[in-house]
Amino acid sequence: MTAGATFSTHSINGLSGGWSPSRQPPPSGLTARTYAAGVQIRTGYGLAGAELDEPAGQAAFLLVLTHGASGGADTPDLLAVRDTAVQLGGAVARVTQPYRVRGARAPGSPDRQDTAWLEIIEELRAGFPGIPLIQGGRSNGARVACRTARAAAARGVLALAFPLHPPGRPERSRAAGRPAPGCRGRRPRGRYGRPPLRRCSGHPESVGFQGTRP
After folding, report:
1. Which pLDDT band, with edges at 50, 70 and 90, does 175 fall under?
2. How far, in Å, CA of 84 to CA of 90, rounded?
3. How large is the C-alpha radius of gyration of the chain?
4. Which of 52, 85, 149, 193 has the most beta carbons within 10 angstroms of its beta carbon?
5. Is the Cβ–Cβ distance between 128 and 135 less than 8 Å?
6. What CATH number is associated with residue 47?
7. pLDDT tens, residue by residue, 42-96
8. So what's the pLDDT on residue 205?
9. Could you give the number of structural domains in the chain?
C-alpha cells in the first residue's frame, strides 16, 4: 500500500462522502500557523483528512489525535487538548480517518483501521522529523492509538473517553486491551476510569493518560 500527503485546501474540500472539515480558530494567545482543512493523506484504504496547528516557533513534539467511531475531530475535548499542546510548543494534527471521509459511521475492521492509521502517522511524521510523537483520541480513536502505539514508536498515548465495554454490554470488558503495547498503567475505576499515569517501555520519560468522559 502506498500512502501520500497532499497539501491542498481545494482538493480536500472536494472530497465526497458527506465529510467536510471544520474550521476552528487557532489557540488563543499564540501565533499558530493553521492549515485548516489543508492536509489530505492518501492511504491504502482511502483518503484521510487532517487539520494541523503549529506553534509560533519550532515544534517540540508532534501530537496526532483522532475522533470517536461516528464523530469528528472538532469535539470540545480534542480542541481543548489541541490548545494546551500548542501552548506547550507542540504541533497538533487532528485526523479524520478514511472511513469518516467516505461518510461511513462505523470504522469496520480494526486491522484495516490500524493499517491506515500507521500510514497517516508515517506521512505526518515525515513533516516533523526528529521530535517525539504522542498519539491519542477519544473513544474508538483512543483504542486505535493504544493498539498502534508500539508500531508507531509513540512516546505516549492520550486516551479520552476510553470505552471499557461495548455499548450496552457491561458484561464484556475491554480493559485487557486498554494499555498501549509496551505500556502499563493502574487499573481503571468505574466505566471510563480515572486518569492514571502511564509509561511506555523503552521510553521511560514519556507519559500518557487514561481519559475520562466529560
Report:
1. low
2. 9
3. 16
4. 149
5. no
6. 3.40.50
7. 999 999 999 999 998 999 999 999 999 999 999 999 999 999 999 999 999 999 9
8. 36
9. 1
